């Protein structure tokens, strides 16, 4: 269930953040924004690849495709989070 969203500032323009909650009360965040080659903390913008991170309080996956970076974060097991990231990727109208 979508709880809400925000438009946020970013180095290369606006960013969008959406927060969802499942029936168990676990929250998931989807974050999107434009990126360009050479940005800090990004991968090659010409290649789409899911990258896992768990170096903070909440694990997630991020990817870059067609000049946009996306991240999904939630307190969920890695496999479940990957399936959600794949589903989000397929649903975003690139």
Write the layout of secondary structure elements.
Blueprint: E1 2-8, E2 15-21, E3 27-34, E4 51-53, E5 60-65, E6 68-73, H1 78-91
Antiparallel strand pairs: 1-2, 2-3, 3-6, 4-5, 5-6
Question: What attributes characterize this protein structure?
Answer:
39% strand, 15% helix, 94 residues, 6-stranded antiparallel sheet, mainly beta, globular, single chain
What does this structure look like?
It is a single chain. By secondary structure, this protein is mostly beta strands. The chain has one helix and six strands. The longest helix is centred in the last third of the chain and has 14 residues, at 78-91. The radius of gyration is 13 Å and the shape is globular. The mean pLDDT is 88.
**Low-confidence spans: pLDDT under 50, at least 5 residues?**
none
Strand order of the largest sheet: 1-2-3-6-5-4
Main sheet record: 6 strands, antiparallel
What Rg is obtained from the alpha carbons, in whole angstroms? 13 Å
Mean pLDDT comes to 88
Count the strands? 6
**How many H/I helical runs?**
1
Distance between the termini: 23 Å
Helices and strands, in N-to-C order? EEEEEEH
Helix content: 10-25%
Residue share in β-strands: 35-45%
